[in-house]
Write a structure and sequence with these properties.
alpha/beta; Rossmann fold; 5-stranded parallel sheet; globular; 302 residues; 7 helices
Length: 302
């Protein structure tokens, strides 16, 4: 896996050629609107992609079909230049698209991401006691399988659980509620350095109480919050430390660049050894405030 990373305060300083096909989702804030404007201006064909985790269906450019049929829909794209807009697409949608593109022989893709300046905080009567309490998801469907990236939780097999930690620590708590996880064989990964200096304290402060309560005793790792290559390499190192029959489950709750790195790891590794646990949150509209830095990741998939 090779990842060439570009970073700029605006899109004008990014180096790229126009794309043949781009995949987008629904914009829920100014970042999403700006990213879609960029995609439309620099793509010959723009296709809206939506995945429904309740019935495993996909809506692509207005056509609905089951997730298992996606490879047939994308089979003619292996010679094209492709962009995925991760600003408007969810983790599960990025993973499904990337896996399908790899299946049909696409070796090179680009992924766009725009950072927020800040996130919306919850309104409380005593704000000083809740200054790290953010309003990011309006509902969470609960942990359910993403077809092609699922393994059964089992006490008969050693399974390493790796949490990519974000602001919403309750999502870790719910993972233990929904699944029979072994807290003694869990690891946590934090995004350090964060998007902005000091933001890592939000993640630490929100997650440490849950880590203590759930008696999570595994390793702690640190990867740049904007660096998908760093999280990809960290996950590879954890994978290499597994026993021959062990399995690994990734729980991506952190930043979108970290989730991209997790997607690339999951796409590359054997499906009988690695899987994902994901709770499919519905993000609140307007959750991100203003627009910060632009990232363009050019990726070569093995």
């Amino acid at each position: 896996m090779k990842i060439r990373m570009q970073y700029s305060e605006c899109s004008d300083n990014l180096t790229f050629e126009s794309w043949d096909i781009s995949f987008i989702g629904d914009p829920i804030d100014d970042r999403g609107k700006k990213s879609i404007e960029f995609v439309i201006a620099n793509s010959k064909d723009v296709r809206k992609f939506e995945y429904n985790s309740n019935d495993f269906t996909i809506i692509l450019a207005g056509s609905e079909f089951y997730k298992d049929d996606l490879d047939n829909e994308l089979h003619s794209l292996n010679e094209l230049n492709i962009l995925i807009d991760s600003t408007t697409l969810s983790f599960s949608e990025i993973l499904i698209i990337t896996q399908s593109l790899k299946n049909v022989g696409v070796n090179h893709i680009s992924i766009l991401y725009i950072e927020p300046c800040d996130y919306k905080k919850k309104h409380r009567n005593i704000p000083l006691l809740n200054k790290r309490d953010f309003e990011l998801s309006e509902s969470i469907n609960g942990y359910s399988a993403i077809p092609g990236h699922a393994l059964l939780i089992s006490n008969e097999i050693t399974q390493k659980i790796v949490f990519l930690c974000g602001y919403e620590a309750e999502r870790i708590d719910r993972a233990f509620e929904d699944s029979q996880l072994n807290s003694s064989n869990c690891s946590c990964v934090f995004g350090v350095p964060a998007f902005c200096p000091g933001w890592e304290m939000n993640t630490f402060d929100n997650n440490i109480p849950v880590i203590k309560e759930r008696k999570i005793k595994g390793d702690v790792h640190f990867c740049g919050a904007t660096n998908p290559l760093a999280i990809y390499q960290t996950l590879c190192n954890i994978y290499e430390s597994l026993g021959d029959d062990d399995q690994m489950l990734v729980v991506p709750l952190a930043t979108k660049p970290m989730s991209i790195g997790a997607c690339l790891f999951l796409v590359e590794k054997p499906k009988d050894r690695v899987a994902v646990l994901y709770d499919h949150p519905k993000e609140i509209k307007g959750r991100a405030l203003k627009i910060s830095n632009w990232h363009l990741f050019n990726i070569t998939i093995n």
